[in-house]
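Run folding on both entries below.
>entry_1
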Amino acid sequence: MAIPVSKERIDYGSPDGSVLHGNARQVIDPAGTARTLKVSESGALCLFNTAAGQTYVLPAIGANDVGLEFEFAVPVTGTGTYSVTTDAATTFIGGGVGMHSTTVAQGGLTAVSNPAATLAIAMDSDITGRLVGGGFTLTAYSTTIWSIRGNLAGVGTLATPF
C-alpha cells in the first residue's frame, strides 16, 4: 500500500494545536525470523528480541514513500547477528550511529556508513553493537537512500557495523 500523496490532516491550523488521544504505534517482533517490512508499517518500532539473531529487510522506496521511518531497538543482548538490509543493490544507507563501550577505558566510536555503497547494518558481535540498550532509526530520504541515526552499545574495542 503506497502512502497517499495527499495526506490526511489531524490539525486544522489552530494556534492552540491539536490533541490526539490513544496514539500508539505498531511494535514488530518477528521472533527470530527474517522479516520484510512493509510501506504500510512506517512508524513501527522493530525489535531485535531473539538472542540468536534477527534480520529485517527494508521496503522499496517508491516516489510517494519518501519519509518512511522505522525505529529499531535492542532489548535483548544478541549472540547471533542483528541486521537490517535494503531491498536492492541500488538502495543505500547513509549516516551514522554513535557506539558506546561498556569498557570504560575504550570510550566510544562514531560509525559512519557510505551512502553510495552501504547496503546493510550488521551487529554481528559484541564489538559491533548487539548489546541490550542500543537502537537506531532509518528514514527514507529519497527513493534510493535511507538515513540512519542512533546509538549502539558494545563492549571492548568497538568496530563499525557497516
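>entry_2
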Amino acid sequence: MSDIEERIRKYKEIEKKALEIVKISVPESSFLFTFAVDGLKMVRSYFEDAQHFSDKGDYLNAFAALNYSYGWLDAMVRLGVLDGGSNDKLFTLFK
C-alpha cells in the first residue's frame, strides 16, 4: 500500500468516527440549523466522493475530498453549530 493510500485509509477511519459523534447543537428554529443540516450534507457528500475516488484509484482527488470534508466538519464544530462532545482528538475545540 502506498503512502497516500495509507493516509486515505487512516483519515477515512478518523472522519467516520467524527461523523458518528457529531450532532446538531443549534435549535431547529435557528437559521443556523439549516446551515448545520446543509453543512453535514455537504460533508457527507465529500466523504462519499472520497470513497468513490479511492475506489477508482484516483488517490489525489480522494485525499482532497477528505481534507475538504473534514475541514468543514471541524469548522462547524469549532463554531458551535455542531457538537463534537469534548473530543479534542477529533476536533479543534475552543478552550
